[in-house]
Amino acid sequence: MTFTKVILSLIFVCCTTFLAAADIAVVTLASGDKYKEAVRLGLENKKEYCTQHDYDFIWSEKSQDSSRPIAWSKILLVLKAMENSDYEWIFWSDADSLVMNLAIPLEDIIDDKYDFIIALGGPQINSGQFLIRNCEWSRQFLRNVYARQECINHIWWEQQAMLLELELSADVKMHTKIIPQRFLNSFAEEITWISPKSHYKPGDFIVHFAGVHELDTLSELFDKYSARVLNDSKAITLDYYLDVNGYNLSPLHSQNNEGYMTASQKKQFENTLKLYPHITSVAEIGLNGGHSADTFFQNCSNLTRFVSFDINHHGYTQPAADFFKRKYKDAFTFVIGDSLVAVPEFAARMPNEKFDLIYVDGNHNYDYCLKDIINCSALAHPETLLWVDDYNGGSIQQAVLKAQEMGVIQIESIHPSEDSCGGGRCWIEARYQQLPTNTSGVVLSEENRSLSCSR
Asked: Most exposed among 50, 85, 219, 423, judged by the fewest C-beta atoms under 10 Å?
C-alpha cells in the first residue's frame, strides 16, 4: 500500500463514525459544524434506522478529496466501505435526507438481479440515495464514474458522471435497476421545481431536501418532517404501491382498472371466506391490478400459497405482482402467459400441486372462460372451491352453464351484488365434478385467441 493510501485510510477511520456490524452498511457524509447541526436530526434518524435493522452506520465528517466539490466524496466513501468484505450491499444516503418510514427494510428494495439500484429524481436519476452491491463490477463502475473529469465541476457533479455511464454503456444499463422515485428518494413538498408526483406522501421510505442550501431552512425542514416519521410496515398497501409506480387505481369501480370489485362484492368475498378458514392455497386466473388477490391474502389467515396466472398486458399488473412478491415472498408466484397455455403447463410441471380455491377472472370470451374452467380442474382436489367472477356477463354465464352441462362443475351458489357507483356484479361458487371424457366440442378460434383479455 502506498503512503498516500495509508494516509487516506487513516483519515477515513479517524473521521468516521461506525455503528454495529452487519452485511449492509448505510453510508453518509456531513461535514462542517454548522452543516452537521442543520442535519443533526437526519443523522440521528439514520442511526436509529440502522439500529432497528442491524445495519452498519458509517458517517464521515470530512471531504475525501479536497481538489473536488464535496459531493464527489460519496464515491470514495462507498469504495472505502466496500473494502469490508462483510458488506454485501452499501446504501448511500445523502445527509440532507430523512428516513420517513423506519419499518421499511433495505432488503425489500434490493433486487439480486442487479448490482446498482437507484431512483429517479424527476425525469432522470438522482444520486441522493442508491444501493450498490459489494462486488468487482460495482467497484469498477464507481472508478469509472470518478474518472470522468469533465464532470468534476458540473452542477450535478458525480450524478452527471453516473448519467453518462448509464447513457453510454450497455453493460451499466444491464446491471442497473432504476426504480420509481418515491420508493427511495421522495422530495419534500417544499421543493417546487419538481413535479408534485415526486413529492413525499405518508408511507414513503425517505424524504430528500434536495437543493436546499440555506441551513436555517434545511433545519426547519428536518424539524417539520421528523414529526411525521412513521414506523409502520402496514403503510405499504397495494394501492400505495401502485400509486408510487404511477397508477392511481381504485379497487372499486374505475375506468382505469378492469379488475374492479364493488364494495358489496368485496364484502361478500370477505364474509364467504370466513366460512372456509381451512384455505391454505389459491390459484387465480387474472391478477390485473391485484385487488382480488389482496382480498384473499387479507382474509385467508392460513394462506401459504398463491399462484396467479396473467398475460401481463396492463402496465399496472407487474407492479401489483411485485408488491405481492415483496410482501408475501415465496407464498406468491406470478406465472406470465396466456392462461390456456400457462395453466396446462403448470399442471404438467407440478402434477401434485392442488389448490383449495380456484378463482377464474380472466378473459371474458366464452371459449376462453370455458377452457379456463376445464383446464383448472387439473389444479383441483376433491374439495376445491371454484369461484368464477362476472357471471352476470352473457358470455361468462354461458361458459359456466356449459361447464355444468358437460359435468365439469356443479354450481353451489350465485352471489349478485349492486352498488350505486359500480353497478351490478355477480360471481358463482361451484365444485368440480368428474371430468367429461370428450371435450372436443370446445373450440377456440384464432380470432378468440387474439382477443386474449389482459388479465
From this structure: 85
